[in-house]
Amino acid sequence: MNRQLLLDVLPAPAPSLNNFIAGSNSEALAAARALAAGRAIYLWGQAGCGRSHLLRGLAARSGAVYIDAASGPQMLRQLAQTDSTAAMPALVAVDDVHLMDKARQAALFALYNRWRESAATDRAFALAVAGDRAPMSLPLREDLRTRLGWDLVFRLESLSDADKLSALSAQAADRGLQLAPEVITWMLTHHERDIRKLASLLDALDRYSLATGRPITTALLRAMLAESQSS
What pTM did the predictor assign? Predict the structure, then answer.
């Protein structure tokens, strides 16, 4: 097998509720799993806390849609203005609301009103929204900030190094890898700290170990990264 193919880090797996590493966010994960039609959830936290992962995991449901702040307001407006007798998506996920301009804010405001009006009917849908700070601290119009806090609100905490160490150790054990703790410690210290990218790096290291016939050590990890950068 071509060595470079083994060095190419696999794309991170698609975000799902099953591969979300909860850490101290287990309550938020449980609420996301249980989110039903007629309910809404707002998730907030700093970059890297997993809010987009959770939203994309929710949007993987059948009949769900995912919208981020980079999208035009047309889809939000279209959903909000859908005829009241027409079916809505089972779930609408709206990400990065802190980046929304006035047009997008107006569209999301209308969507929240539509969500509330339909909540007790057979046309109810779930609404999941995420931003980088608590509702009342967002740089948004006041009536929209109020609506973001209408139902469930969870602050997401970033994974600690101990959480990442535990998650990567579990991934290694699932693969049957003999992995010394110092290998993961080195990864956490010298590589990107995003857990999904770390998981992809571990996958690449596994394949590189098989290709070279060498055990997984920090020396092998450094050799793999050096070879990848020089190719």
Answer: 0.81
